[in-house]
Amino acid sequence: MLNFEELRDFLNEKADVYNNAEFIQDDPIQIPHRFSVKQDIEIAGFLAATISWGNRKAIIKSADKMLDMMGNSPYDFVLNHTDNDLKSIESKSIHRTFNGEDFAYFIRQFNRIYKDNESLENLFKINNAETNFYHSIERFRTSFLQAEKHRSHKHVSSPYKNSSSKRIIMFLRWMVRNDQRGVDFGIWETIDQKHLSIPLDVHTGNISRTLGLISRTQNDWKAVVELDEAVRKFDKNDPAKYDFALFGLGVTKELL
């Protein structure tokens, strides 16, 4: 087992290796990187993050399919689509359990939200007493999904139900984190990156346990908080950078 300083230095080194532009080409973050307009980046990023489970090549292929259906102009399509456009989409297959009906539902919600908000950033604001996105994600869910029940609600996970909310947390890292490395966008300037958490899945969870960062056996919100507490001791101002380290260690399997 490494001591505190050794573990911090080890993770900083691994984060530095993977946090560079080469990371983009094989990761779903390449999808929003195709755009320069803020709203295009947000919509493409949210959709790519939403379907980010399974094989990364399959995720990127499915995200490509969604972009093609939107004419590779996500924001314009969200604002100006027709009912017939959505009817055509509803019959399509997209990615595993995320189908055309879900995609059309998301487009309708985006349309409603962007009529009242310049950016999705407005829906994720952190209140003064909050230290992470626990309440923020739930407020977003309420705004995005509204009260009416729909099959698509299962694709926007809830930390209030103890979900790790991995895909939303990953999307938040993309939008909020800004270190000039060219991977994360940092286009949401009113939210401090110190509040970010690490997207917790099977791989990051297993590596975190191997390194002694967390002891909880489930990859749930309680484990996210436990990991928060550990990595913020290494860097309280940019804890999410360690996502690159844990991801890289998971890919290379050098600790397994």
What is the secondary structure topology, with strand pairs?
Layout: H1 4-18, H2 38-50, H3 56-69, H4 74-80, H5 83-90, E1 93-95, E2 98-99, H6 100-116, H7 134-145, H8 166-176, H9 202-210, H10 221-234, H11 242-252
Antiparallel strand pairs: 1-2
Model description:
It is a single chain. A two-stranded antiparallel sheet has the order 1-2. The chain has 256 residues and is an all-alpha fold. The chain is built from eleven helices and two strands, in the order αααααββαααααα. α2 (38-50) packs antiparallel against α8 (166-176), α5 (83-90) runs antiparallel to α6 and α9 (202-210) packs across α11.
Condensed summary:
The protein has helices spanning 4-18, 38-50, 56-69, 74-80, 83-90, 100-116, 134-145, 166-176, 202-210, 221-234, 242-252; strands at 93-95, 98-99.
- Assign a percent range to the helix content: 40-55%
Q: What's the total count of β strands? A: 2
Main sheet characteristics:
2 strands, antiparallel
Query: What best-fitting shape do the alpha-carbon axes yield?
Result: globular
Salient structural properties:
mainly alpha, single chain, 256 residues, 11 helices
